[in-house]
Specification:
mainly alpha
Length: 216
Amino acid sequence: MSLFSAETIARAGILAVAGIVFAESGLLVGFFLPGDSLLFTAGFLASQHTLNIFALALACFVAAVIGDSVGYNIGKRMGPRLIKRPDGKIFKKQHIAQAEEFYKKHGKKTIIIARFTPIVRTFAPIVAGLGNMEYKSFLAYNVAGSALWTFSLTYAGYYLGKALPNVSHYLEPVILLVILLSLSPAFYHFFKNAENRKKLKRLPRSILSAINKKTR
């Protein structure tokens, strides 16, 4: 059964959806989680009377605020050690650098903008803590960004479900569209990096070289 299917999310319930939102915001390993598409799909399910839309949006909002606050404290207390440690399979320093680029461009508003940008939303609060941003200021942007993100996506799915007849027939295409839209900023920043473009150009040669070695 697909992770994004209506049946999966309905069974998981509001607490599970909120838990994923928290993990994506507050845990270093959560950057790959499908926050945008999950919120939208959960909102759609609420339109079909599977979930309570207000309880869903409120729980996800609280989870997002707490998650970012956890990320902030990780950055404040463990930030220097994270920067010094070598890249692992999951944590990579380029993610921190990507979030730092956002801060250079957008300042404190990064906390809000990052909510709508996969990967960056996981590491933006860590960088805020690492940079010793005043917590009161961070919390204000955190609350605003979390509210915009959770309520807009859940209610977008909810009202779409209410507006379209037989919308259940369109669920999978809509989810795929949301996933593509939510990943587009990450793809943009990936391809904007010259080193990443070079790696992609070298990839076919590396694959062919590996195949040739195995066939010899």
